[in-house]
Design a protein that fits this description.
The protein is mainly α. Helices cover 55% and strands 4% of the residues. The protein has five helices and two strands, in the order H-H-H-H-E-E-H. Strands 1-2 form a two-stranded antiparallel sheet. Helix 1 packs parallel to helix 5, helix 3 (49-66) runs parallel beside helix 4 and helix 3 (49-66) runs antiparallel to helix 5. The longest helix is centred in the last third of the chain and has 27 residues, at 131-157. The chain starts with 10 loop residues before the first helix and ends in a 9-residue tail after the last helix.
């Protein structure tokens, strides 16, 4: 069943549902594909479906946990290699990266539950940001990459659409 942003919901609840809708679409778009298809670069930049999942896991941990002073597991972020979190290494399995995304989502959800929308944390670039700003940013980030995932999936096998049909 497709989640819908409540028409009269509160701000934080609405942003959370919007984020979850896009998170779920990312995972739905991977269903039915094998490891080779998930790792296959489909565009000149080398972007892969599994690489986008790895990236989204890293930014969930970074924006929610790091920003608000919560612990994370080691992240594939490297100032000297801006594509490190998008690249799937040969030893990284599909199961490992899907589990990484699941743990990142769960950790981010705990922070969302614990932090008020007006509370501030410190962004990686040294500026204070509110939970509201982070939620908006992550809805944008996840939606942007859900569109990428949709295009890559269509290039692989023709499947298209922004959510699982009811």
């Amino acid at each position: 069943m497709v989640q819908r942003v409540p028409f009269t919901g509160g701000e934080k609840e609405s942003l959370r549902v919007a984020l979850d809708r896009h998170r779920d679409a990312i995972l739905w778009k991977l269903e039915g594909l094998d490891d080779e298809q998930l790792r296959r670069p489909m565009v000149p930049s080398g972007t892969t479906l599994l690489g986008l999942v790895k990236h989204l896991a890293a930014v969930e941990y970074s924006w929610f946990c790091d920003t608000f002073g919560r612990e994370t597991e080691p992240l594939p972020l490297d100032d000297d290699d801006p594509d490190a979190d998008l690249r799937v290494e040969p030893e990284e399995t599909t199961a490992d990266l899907l589990a990484f995304y699941g743990r990142a989502r769960a950790a981010a959800d705990r922070v969302i539950d614990e932090v008020g929308e007006e509370e501030t944390g410190m962004a990686w670039f040294g500026e204070p940001v509110t939970m509201r700003w982070v939620l908006i940013h992550m809805v944008e980030e996840t939606a942007r990459h859900a569109g990428h995932v949709d295009i890559l999936r269509e290039l692989i096998d023709g499947a298209a659409g922004d959510h699982r049909p009811d």
